Amino acid sequence: MSKLCASFGVTVRQLREAQGWSQEILAEKAQLNRSYVGEVERGKVIPSLITLDKLASALGLKISDLLAQCERHRGQQAVYKLNLASIAC
Amino acid sequence: MSKLCASFGVTVRQLREAQGWSQEILAEKAQLNRSYVGEVERGKVIPSLITLDKLASALGLKISDLLAQCERHRGQQAVYKLNLASIAC
What is the ipTM of this complex? Predict the structure, then answer.
């Protein structure tokens, strides 16, 4: 699965854990299946726009804010890899 | 299909037209099928996170910026309907 889905999954997990919620609680609030939330967090599925909306609403965010956090995570990952590459050179 | 997908479709169409692009041009830039882009614009399909990424990149936007524009369109639609309702009362 894509790096974007992986970053999105990490973002959702971080936001869920920041609330002190289990996957079950987030799934219930988002009206999604618990195992599907687990797959989203592990970047194993490609979420749809409707899923993004449900997760954002459950987390008290706009979809654009949730994606902005995901984009920041992607940016940090890119810098981290660049740093590792510069150490290796 | 959901109002969210309809608003997203209108947003994509407006951004495409602002560039003076045909659906064919946007589809080519986004590496998507032309008829699929048409369905997205008419709100007939639920786009995935990967499709959002492809369309945003083609339009020179972050996914979060594309969705922020979609959310503004949804907000405007809600105000418009409220105004129509107040005229009708």
Answer: 0.87
